Amino acid sequence: MSAEPTKILLDENEIPERWYNVAADLPSPLPPPLGPDGKPVGPDALAAIFPPALIEQEVSTERWIAIPEAVREVYRLWRPTPLYRARRLEQALGTPARIYYKYEGVSPAGSHKPNTAVAQAWYNREAGIRRLTTETGAGQWGSALALAGQLFGLDVRVYMVRVSYEQKPFRRSMIQTWGAEVLPSPTDLTEAGRRVRAEDPDSPGSLGIAISEAVEEAASREDTNYALGSVLNHVLLHQTVIGLEAKRQLEKVGEYPDMVFAPCGGGSNFGGIAFPFYADKAAGREVRLVAVEPESCPTLTRGRYAYDYGDTVGLTPLLPMYTLGHDFVPPGIHAGGLRYHGDAPLVCHLYREGLLEAVAVPQVATFEAGVLFARTEGIIPAPESNHAIRAMVDEALRCRERGEPKVLLFNLSGHGHFDMAAYDRYFNGELEDFAYPEEAIEAALARLPQVAAG
Ligand SMILES: *Cc1c(COP(=O)(O)O)cnc(C)c1O
């Protein structure tokens, strides 16, 4: 037994050379994004804020897309990431299941987000862009893009939701350490920010307002583009390095997963680990792919499939997705991240076709599972990752009851070192479970833009 590895590593040269594009293997075409007039948005409409290469990837149906050598060169700083066999957790659970996890917390920013930040920064620089703007809530995406901008010599401005800017100073300091500018949003530098401040000088800000500011600035400056950290097709494409590596690592020990789990906020790390396995599923192999979301933000499990805005204010094109309504506000009690009102159109499309599964978990149980994981495997997971751990542990316990030696794989999307305040609230008994009320969902869905979805 002891000869079996705990940590399965790949050589630097085994970093994938191509990203996998799931759009090549869909059972039916992905419905296009729509403009305010209800007509499909052409690639041209995106040219003011994205470089041509990323727009091309956004609409591509090529199965494999080459990873530029300059991007692979930066990936070498932390990739390939390790795949672990969770022996101590298996023992603690008394399960016959074999549990593996892919650990994305080894990136400099501590999560999977740099996988796409680096690619986006490079394509923008190649297109002659000198500055990037973006928004950030708690700061994970802002710090990933700051790192990527620094490595490729781009100036980055991060509009950070003001309440997070004040309450979560350490992610802000990381953004500054990597040389980016971080501003509490709403600012008075943009039309959108000034409008909000005129109405409410003490506005705490919101992700929707910060997106509006970042997009407005990028659209109005020739040298500046905008970068988004999840949801879009090209973002999920870049994240497939996770699943491609994991497959190769499992092959090395002669394993193939029965089930793959990942937390699902906008869908990027879930798509990243799951899509390369979906490719096998599309070719007839049996594998179950499970997106795990919070009960307090139950987009896939209780939302409606409809065209909705990507942001709160209604500036973005309409995206075909499961949504809780673009003005959805997660309950204040919610501490675990994954707050987005929608999900990536690619994930939603495959879920609707019955090819992916989704489960919603209550928050106290997610921290319970995260603490068990930390006490057995050592790594303190990001609260987002705890969702996947919870669902995976529940399956491992079912395996114990049924005596099933399933192979379970999950994505440990990041570490929780900057989220210890959320763990504090858990240890102090301040967290409660909160299933989002049906009436609130119904009311928000009644405010959806009136465009029929497929
Ligand atoms: C941002 C983030 C998520 C959720 O975003 P997805 O786009 O759904 O992957 C999950 N885990 C960590 C650690 C994150 O930083």
Q: Briefly, what is this?
A:
The chain has 454 residues and is α/β, with parallel strands linked by helices.
Major sheet characteristics: 7 strands, mixed
| CATH C-level name of the largest domain | Alpha Beta
Which outline best applies?
globular
Question: Can you count the helices?
Answer: 18
Q: How does CATH name the architecture of the largest domain?
A: 3-Layer(aba) Sandwich
Tell me the number of strands: 15
Q: Which structural class fits the helix and strand makeup?
A: alpha/beta
Q: Could you tell me the strand content as a percent range? A: 15-25%
CATH topology of the largest domain: Rossmann fold
Strands ordered across the widest β-sheet: 1-4-5-15-10-11-14
Named once each, the bound ligands are: pyridoxal-5'-phosphate
Instruction: Give the domain tally.
Output: 2
> Roughly what is the average pLDDT, rounded to an integer?
94
End-to-end separation:
52 Å
Rg, rounded, reads 21 Å
Which bin fits the share of residues in helices?
A: 40-55%
Low-confidence stretches: none
